[in-house]
Amino acid sequence: MKSEKKWSPFDGIWSHNPVFAAGMSAAPAVILGSSLDTALTYALLFSTTTFGALMISRLLPRKIPYALRIILYTLTAAAVYIPCYMAAEKFSAVNPASLGVFLTLIVTGDFVVRGSELRFFRLKGGRFVTDIISHILGFDMALILLGAVRELFSQGGIGGVLYGVNTVIPILSAPCGGFILIGLMGALIRVTKNN
User: Fold this and answer.
1) Among residues 12, 82, 7, which one has the least CA distance to residue 45?
2) Which is nearest to 84 in space by CA: 37, 49, 136?
3) Per-residue model confidence as pLDDT tens digits over 2-34
4) Is the whole model's pTM more than 0.85, yes or no?
5) How many CA within 13 A on the CB side of residue 71?
6) How buried is residue 142: exposed, middle or buried, by Cβ count under 10 Å (0-12/13-18/19+)?
7) Tens of pLDDT along 143-169?
8) Cβ-contact 178, 148 below 8 angstroms
């Protein structure tokens, strides 16, 4: 009989990484993870909005019907997103408006709509907060890693600074390059989980 895997505060960073292991939010990771500056800007907006929205949404009574709770989670995320966006406009290297339609995925994406009910809100107290932070960090690390690796090896440098990469692979900057890297990282996670 298989024993049930124990919860770990590092689940979201490696074994259950939202991008590499679970495939959550793969679209923003593939499109916006093509350069480091864009990845950092999206990670900032994603982290602050998601954390704030989930903390506030946790306070909603479970007696509210499921469909209405999901709508309230999204409205909460939208309310948290507005000041986060305004801060990102001031402090980010990339104008957040250039991230386009992927900004709406922060408010209506897997973390707020699906992850809240299926994972995060099932945990108690400190585990709840730790799990959210772990998954947010896991997403951010995946996005930033994709952005840095793809920019470095498709353009030979990061942020216009060349680092002596002799062979560039331009296809890495295309969406298919992002999917290839996500697939390779997913395979690596599966291999390490099985050992």
Assistant:
1) 82
2) 49
3) 445 677 888 888 888 888 887 778 889 999 999
4) yes
5) 5
6) buried
7) 999 999 999 999 999 988 888 888 899
8) no
Phi, psi (degrees; rounded to nearest 5) at 161: -100, 120
What are the Cα distances from residue 67, in Å, to 4, 45, 59, 72? 30, 26, 16, 9
Domain residue ranges in the chain: 26-194
DSSP states of the chain? -PPPPPP-TTTTTTTT-TTTTT-TTHHHHHHHTTSHHHHHHHHHHHHHHHHHHHHHHTTS-TTS-HHHHHHHHHHHHHHHHHHHHHHHHHH-SS-GGGGTTHHHHHHHSHIIIIIHHHTGGGS-HHHHHHHHHHHHHHHHHHHHHHHHHHHHHHHSEETTEE---SS--GGGGSHHHHHHHHHHHHHHHHHHHH-
Structure token pair of residue 166: 């002799």
The Cα 172–Cα 32 span in angstroms is: 12
Type of residue numbered 2: K
- The token pair that represents 25 in the structure block: 């939010």
Distance in angstroms (rounded) separating the CA atoms of residues 88 and 86: 5
